[in-house]
Amino acid sequence: MTERPPTLLPAPGRMAVDFEERVDFHRLREYRLARTRAALEASELGALLCFDVNNVRYTTSTQIGEWVRDKVARYSLLARGGEPMLWDFGSAAKHHRLYAPWLEPSNSRAGMLGLRGSVAPDAGLMDAAAIEVKSLLDDAGVGDAPVGVDLVEVPMLRALERAGIDVRDGQQVMLDARQIKSHDELLLLSMSAAMVDGCYQVISDMLKPGVRESEVVAVANEYLYRQGSDDVEAINAVSGERCSPHPHNFSDRLIRPGDQAFFDIIQSFNGYRTCYYRTFNVGRATPAQHDAYKRAREWIDAAIDLVKPGATTDQLARVWPRADEFGFDDEMEAFGLQFGHGLGLALHERPIISRLNSLEHPVELQEGMVFALETYCPAADGYSAARIEEEIVVTADGPRVITLFPAQELFVANAY
User: Fold this and answer.
1) Separation between Cα atoms, residue 71 and residue 94, nearest integer Å
2) I need a labelling partner for 93 at 20 to 30 A (CA). Which of 185, 215, 374, 380 fits?
3) pLDDT, mean of each 10-residue run, the chain (416 residues)
């Protein structure tokens, strides 16, 4: 493996201080809105109407809690040459007028579309919202231009069409905007990863026979929220015979001596997410378990060594084994095991790297991209498996790894 310099990204702490420059949130808001405007100008669209909470946050720098993620309850509008407008849940709109001065007060409005059909469409909420949006588009001079929409309920799509709006795909435009991270975004991603570094120390200390997977998840959740996480989206905890094939969840299984166990911690700090796997053995490890880990490490290192501006995602995917080489029928069935995905406000951004899509549709890596690379190798014993993941920043000098908990060799926790 090529030796790499240490990370250049600090994890400066959660507080604002007067003696160091840390995250500049005003600069962060300006950068994200400028990126969105540039992507909109480069498209055929006259405006972006966003329902995806990640895009709403990116364009308006507002968030009211993770409970809204699946409600399709908030939406934003950005027209060419205009300021962002936001429709939020009830009293949140009034709160923004008081505490979010970067939004024009009149552009922070209450909105209600039905909470995924709980209020039926025939109540007219969606039609009223669509007519309001069309009026605003007309006022902005883009009423006849196509409008990009990212996520939409079918009744809302039909209401927009009835209002005379030409709906196009806006998600690609927003992903264009979000794929290059600013210095402040990189700091937030580094801080988020640093929180998980510490969480893995806690997990390694508690990995003993008799502990349940679900107990590890509970302790990790408490640790992360105490550290300042704003959303622990999921923690996979997979041990023993559950390791192969990978179930992507956790259970109440009792951890036993000699188990191989891997964990994925998906959480966010100020919205910026981690996807961060580590594999441990409990007390001892067999040659088969060591061998599986060694191969998973070799695969991930081969991909990391290729990361630089101008490299393409097919080059990374080709160094990973084919699905049939590690026990799967095809690349669809093996998807997500030898895998790369962009990270930011969402868990899966650009680029997506795998043999399923990258060989025929490669994407060029650019400085400022941030993505996770993850590999998986079943052990020869038929039930153990190794899983490793590193988060990478693409720099002019090559890759910078920001996931720092030790992973070059199989970590045997509480060895005996």
Assistant:
1) 20
2) 185
3) 57 89 96 98 98 98 93 96 97 97 97 96 97 98 98 97 98 98 97 98 98 98 97 97 97 98 98 98 98 98 98 98 97 98 98 98 98 98 98 96 97 94
Question: In this structure, what token pair is assigned to residue 75?
Answer: 């939406």
Question: Is residue 253 a part of any domain in this protein?
Answer: yes
Please tell me the predicted confidence (pLDDT) of residue 400: 96
Q: How do strand 147-149 and strand 47-50 relate by DSSP bridges?
A: parallel
Torsion of CA 400, 402, 408, 411, to 10 degrees: 180
- Kind and range of the H or E run holding 42: none
What is the dihedral sign for C-alpha 311, 400, 197, 185? negative
Number of domains in the chain: 2
DSSP designation for 71:
T
Which of 139, 161, 178 is the last residue before a domain boundary?
A: 178
Domain boundary (178, 202, 232) is at 178
Amino acid at 132: E
Report pLDDT for 9: 83
Establish how many alpha carbons lie within 13 A of residue 159's alpha carbon, considering only the half-sphere containing its beta carbon. 22
**H-assigned helices in 101-212:** 125-139, 154-162, 171-178, 183-206
Counting every residue written for the chain, the total comes to 416
- Residues 168 and 129: their CA atoms lie apart, in Å, by 18
| 297, amino acid identity | R
CA 165 centroid distance within chain: 31
Residues with Cβ within 8 Å of residue 7, at least 6 apart in sequence: 190, 400, 401, 402, 404
Note the pLDDT of residue 8.
Answer: 63
Q: Which domain holds residue 248?
A: 183-413
- Can you read off the two tokens belonging to residue 7? 């990370």
